[in-house]
Amino acid sequence: MRRILSLCDYTGNWSQPYVEAGYDVVRIDLQHGGDVRLLERDTKPIHGILAAPPCTCFASSGARWHRTEADMIEALSVVDACIRLAWAHRATLRWWALENPIGKLVRYLGKPLMRFNPCDYGDPYTKRTCLWGQFTPPLPLIVGKDLSVQPTEGSKMHTQYGGKSQATKNARSATPIGFARAFFEANK
Questions:
Q1: Spatial separation of the C-alpha atoms in residues 140 and 179, rounded to whole Å
Q2: Rounded Cα distance, 59 and 146, in Å
Q3: Are 183 and 131 in contact (CB under 8 A)?
Q4: Model confidence over 63-81: pLDDT tens digits?
């Protein structure tokens, strides 16, 4: 059975298509009691890694909030742990991807392999998002003559999910369902 590590994916949206297809999905998230920074190399072969480290320090949308050096060190330690796990499993790994919204992470990881908006994959809102790693980029939906659906809900991150509560952070960080399905189809 193919094993997928789903790191920092609180909602499980990104890994759900793999669960539904019968993959052995191991979900590690701090809010569920698991810290990716303490995860040891798995003894079983790992087929793929999905990583969505918290974006609080990195997202452009949060730029108005003050971030201390300690905040950045903490955030980067989670990103580093995700990349470390991809490196540690490189012998069996078919693909890996690390997701984060447009923002400061490009300063540390360089240019992403791809960028997308949820409306490119059927979810009617915008949230410019980057992906780094080694994976097959999913093709966007083709709806009529357009390459995407119209973002009729605009940027829900600003209009519906403002604030600093954990509930709003979780809602903002949820992987769009349409993108999750498209990513799965491109990276089985």
A1: 9
A2: 28
A3: no
A4: 555 677 787 787 889 899 9
